[in-house]
Amino acid sequence: MKLSNFFIFSFLFITGFLWGVQVDGSRHHHHHDHYKNSHNNPKNYKNEQKRNQIYGFKPTKLFVFGDSYADTGNNRKSVANSWKQPYGVTFPGKPAGRFSDGRVLTDYLARFLGVKSPVPYRWMKYATKRLRYGINFAYGGTGVFNTRVPEPNMTTQIDFFQKLMAESVYTKADIVQSSLFLLSLAGNDYGAYLSKGGTVQDIPAFITSVVNQLVVNMKRVNKLGAKKIAVTSLEPLGCLPQTTILNSFQQCNATENIAVDLHNSLLQQAVAKLNNETMGSTFVILDLFSSFNSVLESKGVPAGSMRFETPLKPCCMGISNKYSCGSMNEKGEKMYTVCNDPKSAFFWDTVHPTEAGWHAVYTSLKSTLTQKIL
Prior knowledge:
8 strands; 13 helices; alpha/beta; four-stranded parallel sheet
């Protein structure tokens, strides 16, 4: 696969994406009450649990490894913009470490399982009662290899989990019977690779190494007892606002998505092989590529209530290339702007979806979640 010089430029442009810009670095109001109630009604968890019992799978725990698409508060406040205003403005109403205005992928997957969103690993000692729902080990800005953020990569995150098992916080029998494992990989490895001088000619080989390491991680958690492991496909990087800003947020960059296609194709082949080796359906792919594209192309979910008029344009942006969402100058003045209604935007900042965006993605995924996980 040959990638053009334009790919080098545009891919480099997006590749601080989960660690450069965000890590430290009014329409349809009549739908919003329904949207809000669908999240806050405690009956939702009971309904999801009843449904799961019907299908025979009764997960009570969710263990999460990965990056900012799944992180719910592990990054240090000194490192991540996710702890700064206006992050968290929709939920929980203040910055809480999520790279969004509200809920993210982990929260929706937990909701699907009918359990509470697992507590972030860094805060587990303050919420021991929540450990029965699992733990979120994901750190924004990380990958399967070391990236430019001083946070633990996926291998180290799994080390944390294995240590808890050694300390009998969780037993292997407990893991086998009642847990779902999520591995989120949104592309930070590729940004780090190019920033360290990696060449475009070697990108296909590097993509292969990333997928291979992801497979190593999947096999490892399987050996620790996991019988259901979900891994995310790579989202369409060419559709992220940090790329589409080049054309005023009008269209995705198809060239960048060629590399994404290679990653996802290799991942699909690897998962099929793993399932063949285990003689089952232990490993499943959460197809973020297709679900993102479906939502972006339809400007929402056809069967849903949300509508994104300009889906490639983020809600929160820095006032110039020098600044990002959440940035302040030396005088303490805001160096960013926020749209009037985050629920009308698919993207929150130049990389991450809004809560409404993740809800739309979850809605798109939901039917396949039932088939693959339950």
